Amino acid sequence: MAGVGAGTGALSSLLGKLTTLLSDEYKLLKGVRKDIAFLERELRRMQILVNILADMEKLDKLAKDWKGTMRDLSYDMEDCIDRFMVRLGKGDAKRGFMKRTVRRLNTIFARHGIGTQIKELKARVVEESERRQRLNLDNFVTSTPRTVEIDPRLAAFYEEAEGLVAMDVPMNKVMAWLMEDSLELKVVAIFGGGGLGKTTLAMELNRKIKGYFECRASVSVSRTLDLERCPISNRPRCI
């Protein structure tokens, strides 16, 4: 069976941001909050099917097309949600009444604009939900036995680097290369035999330097990499 990698991560990331947007930190118009809550519920239902399709080795053309459309839709929606969160900013309960009022007035046009775009996203989600039903894709949920092979490299995504022998020296050296002042594109390769901690080193570097870069992405790929299907290839903002 297909390994569990980062292919379904776009939808999971989007759902996390929708949940955050619904929190009290972001002051939304009542209708906008209702539409975002609808998106979150509907996408969580669709996520079940997306994950099942991702675990299958063979899919017919219609199912594969729907899964790809959902991936692209997730990227588009996440880009929109990112912009919303930046434009609205977080509410601050410690601010005085006048400051809170001024902020709400300054963002009122942004709030109404967000409402319009959310309705457009809602229409796209409803369209894909209806297409899913027409194609009877929900049959995969009840009829497909799920045997999932876990990509062994994913353990390093959550492994603590502390205690690993001789990790500090190569980490500091690679960090120095990455942090050099230069506008040119950089590619740093980490290679070595199996079990030496290459993936763990890469993920720990990713955590340590996250504050210095606006956009980041971590993707687990196979040795036979197809760049067109790689999730990061569809995210030009990531570096």
From TrEMBL:
CDD domains: RX-CC_like
Superkingdom of origin organism: Eukaryota
Keyword annotations from UniProtKB, A to Z: Leucine-rich repeat, Nucleotide-binding, Plant defense, Repeat
Domain Disease resistance N-terminal: 10-99
Gene3D superfamilies: 1.20.5.4130, P-loop containing nucleotide triphosphate hydrolases (3.40.50.300)
Gene Ontology biological process: defense response
Domain called NB-ARC: residue spans: 170-226
GO molecular function annotations of the record: ADP binding
Protein family membership: Belongs to the disease resistance NB-LRR family.
PANTHER family: AAA+ ATPASE DOMAIN-CONTAINING PROTEIN, TRANSLOCASE OF INNER MITOCHONDRIAL MEMBRANE 13 HOMOLOG
Protein name per the record: Rx N-terminal domain-containing protein
Species of provenance: Triticum aestivum (Wheat)
